[in-house]
Amino acid sequence: MKKKCLLTILLLSLVNCGLLSKNKNSETSLLNTLDNNQKQALITFKDLLQDKNHRSILEKQQKSILKDLEKHQENSNLQDKLKKTLNSEYDKTQLNKLFDELGNIKTKQFLQKLHIMLKSINNGTLTSFSSSNFKDSNQTLEQKKEQALQYIKGQLYTDYYLYINGIQDANYFFERIMSVLEI
Fold it and tell me: Could you tell me the maximum CA-CA distance found in the chain, to the nearest angstrom?
């Protein structure tokens, strides 16, 4: 009996090492295909996912989705997930899983679009700075930049953690974020 337990533990350890190696290889493979702008966007995205300052936005979105589902009496399984506290702990394997599900092409598109958006915000060239999205004409350019940056970060944080909690799938994450990152 003891030998079976030890053998099982040994096998599980080997499987776990294999999975970790696969995730490491997956990340390395992706990194090798990214240009410098995409790598910078990836670093920014990873840093954002570890920043708990946007947790309240996730909680508001969680309540909003739950309220809407309850109102229309839809998807009881999803309602059950939303009634629980959502996981918002950064886990590199979850990020790798998202990128694996998206594939290299969509991942690179996402990172490129994120880089372009962040650059246009930082440069003050975001076209929506002059639109009705920034109605308060008393705002300085720096205030508009900060408002736009916080909005983008909040959306990225929220949609990522909705994805890892099984509230939305990878394709929905991609489509939604790509529309948020439209210039």
Answer: 75
Instruction: Read off the pLDDT of residues 83-121 as tens digits, 9 standing for 90 and up.
Output: 999 999 999 999 999 999 999 999 999 999 999 999 999
- Work out the burial of residue 69: count CB atoms within 10 Å of its CB; fewer than 13 is exposed, 13-18 middle, 19 or more buried: middle
pLDDT at 37 over 70: yes
Q: Which phi and psi angles does 34 have, rounded to 5°?
A: -85, 145
Confidence class for position 23, pLDDT limits 50, 70, 90: very low
16 with 63, same domain: the answer is no
Distance of CA 139 to the CA centre of its chain: 29
- The residue with tokens 């994120």 is 114
pTM of the model: 0.80
8 and 61 both lie in a single domain? no
For residue 67, the enclosing domain spans: 35-180
- Give the total number of structural domains in the chain: 2
